[in-house]
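Researcher: I'm comparing several assemblies side by side, and this is the next one on my list. It has 628 residues spread over two chains. Same procedure as the others: predict the full complex and return the structure.
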Amino acid sequence: MTFKSILDEIENNLKKVLNDMSIDDVSFSVEPAKPGFGDVSSNVSFLLAKQLKKSPQDIAKSISERFSHCTNTLVLKSEAHASGYLNFFADWKKLSQLILSESYLDTFGDIDLGKGTTIVVEHTSVNPNKALHIGHIRNIIIGDTVSRILKKANYNVNVLNYIDDSGLQVADIVVGFKHFGYDQEPPNGKKFDHYCGDDVYVKTTEKYEKDAGLESIRKNVLKDLEDGNSETAMFADKITRRVLAGQLETCWNLDVFYDCLNFESHIIRSGLWDKIFANLKDMGLLEFENDGKNAGCWVIRGDGKEEDKVIVRSNGTATYIAKDIPYAAWKLGMLEDPFCYERYPEVQSSDRDLWQTTLDSACTASKNFTGDKVVTVIDSRQARLQKIITYLMGRFKSVPDAYVHLGYESVTLSSETAKTLGLDTDGKQAQMSGRKGLYVSADSVYDMLREKTKEETVKRHPEMDVAETEKIAHHVSVGTLRYEMIKQDLDKMITFDLTKSLSLEGDTAPYIQYSYARASRILEKSGKVPSIDVDFSLLCENSELDLIKNIGLFNLQVRDAANNLSPKVIARYCHELAVSFNSFYEKSKVLNLDDACLENSRLCLVNSFKITLKKALDLLGVKTPDRM
RNA sequence: GGGCCUAUAGCUCAGCAUGGAUAGAGUGUUGGACUUCUAAUCCAAUGGUCAAGGGAUCGAAGCCCUUUGGGCCCA
């Protein structure tokens, strides 16, 4: 058990006390205390003030008095603070032993929210016509981190990437290659996805703008794409798969992995839409409009003042939301699976198989990538559309929150960075645009970070061999990028600035990784494996107790993060852990102490910290080099 | 015109869900700490009418209403 043990003990005893005082059950809080106010605090007396017509302080006093007669194993004493808070002081000798010995277990930090149920997390979902830019990276890292957290919370997680390989953006690069004569091989070794995005896509779009007559070519290509057997569609398939390979390379480099790639073209050709269309009509969720501006269309009624949403136009064609509905229903496992599955030709990592949908019925692999719940990570510009899907899925599947849209605000470019890309924004931030070529690619940011961290590492360790330097630089760069993408709240916009994003000090991944490296070095130099059989009363400095407390809060943080689908909770926790370790590091010497018992106790704490931080950083997909 | 998000220190952000104690970090600026387990570190100083106004409450950064600035979506 962890710090949760003492919280539970206090809560139970408080309930007994309230029962003795014949007070109705109130839902009071029992939380880790703010520094300087003991170890645990409760607001119970504030909540009772009205009912008992007494001051919070008087109530706290009488509860505290009764509390002292309860059987307390982890609490030394309780105290009624003048403010009215009830504060508790832990018996650290016992609590430290509980927390530290627990931290050595593989299951440390686990919390059973999912009960082994299956949940789908879909993220990335970028058109396969360009390289990933820094805005896509926010989506990808949020999705990957959330899926790691949910796994820790005992969900069985299926990670999907939806490949939109049949839309307008794909048509555009096909036009570029087929009609504007772009070579299929990128110049001087440029990555294919970058070539398609930077050159073919952007320049093809420019040509449309100059010559409106080209629009008909574009429409014809789009039409050809719909027929899967057309020569155009086969060509598009070849191109988009090459781009996809480039995108996946970027993701894998950032330690982001998937379970299955779902191709939009397969969804369209599978006939899923016809099935769901019939269902929607049966359930009365779709209505046929007889008059008004949507006459002849099938619509979903808007909520309140909202406009009705057209699903099928009067000419019988489905709008693009129509693709999302059957797909969402499929993800929730509510439709018979029309797909077959085959392995993706490239291996993404040693322990994670990657599959892809196929309509080739010769592939008989039996797979199920659906879930009881679905989390779809898409930026909040899609909120309106996602709200409709959420509503419909709620009607289909009677599980509350079965379909969750995890939205986040987008990444914009700072005016300085926009300027380096040739756009003067007059001091304002700028929205990225793949079409206009206004973006910063993920690969280029990674490359810059790696150059800088390599330089730093060489400066610190001139003696180190190149392979190790490269490895450290890689892990620190990936960590930095990942941490930057999730350390703030999802509903806060990120204004990306090339210069500022390269900072490696302060609230960054390297700061946290550095604390890990320090702990590693202490243990390495000690040359011993610390024994857990130590006298925990020796760990009595404030900095030591703080660190132990933070270690003990791990599973509670995982619970919060999973419940709220909030990756930043874990980011902040890792930072807190590192801060308390660095503070301990300054104040308490570990090695070469005269007192062997004390030395072992501290080594034990260092080891416990190291293990916990590694587990927590693993949830963020941040690696932990032993030296840096 | 309708909807969503946002406003806290010079700058970037925690805290808000579930109202209570002294509003916290980083960064910046200024000063200090490496013959001591790695200074990508630590310590100190500096810096806040929590956008404005109103309301309910014993009590509001947090809840409700209005207004304003910024971003986005739909029309």
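Model: For your comparison table: The radius of gyration of chain A is 29 Å.
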